[in-house]
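pasting for ref
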Amino acid sequence: MNVFIVEDDNWDNYALISKYISKNYLSDNTRIHHIYGKHLPHVSKIIFDNDFDIYRRTIDDKEPKKSYYEIIKNMNICIIFHNFIEYTTSTSFIMKVCEENKIPYIIISEHTRMCFLNGETYEGKIKGAFKKAATYEIFKKFKGVDDSEEFNNINNKVSKEKKSLNEIIKIINNSYEKIQIHRNNKSIILIDPI
């Protein structure tokens, strides 16, 4: 079973992730997919501790929507750790794609003990939601890339201006000069030579 795990950008409750990404909730043959980012080191440790296979996935900066589509279309379940405070981010985009393509997704939040299965509150235990999601039949015809403007900034990458090599050399030289001046000002001065 292929499972895609994604978290909010500001998610920091790794204890909750380790609780649900375990053999208690997922079968032994689970292959977990996760994108590269700040959460990957923590999540990969959790995955390794539970002896699951992990597939690290990249997102193309030029076409992030297409990259997410390529990942999601091969998944059996998407598990989204989401607190409903971030919108027009990757988690919201993944929820929309899963709804359009009838891929089961489970939303786990810090704010409630229940989970959400396909956007609706699941009344039973979370383990039951995992089992129910695993039985869904996957919709084979996957819809293409959404061209709407709503999720154009889902990568949240801050682009910096590229500098020429000469500019970088000048900046480094200036930094070294400042360090040398600082050292000279703080150094011990010999007042009375013998």
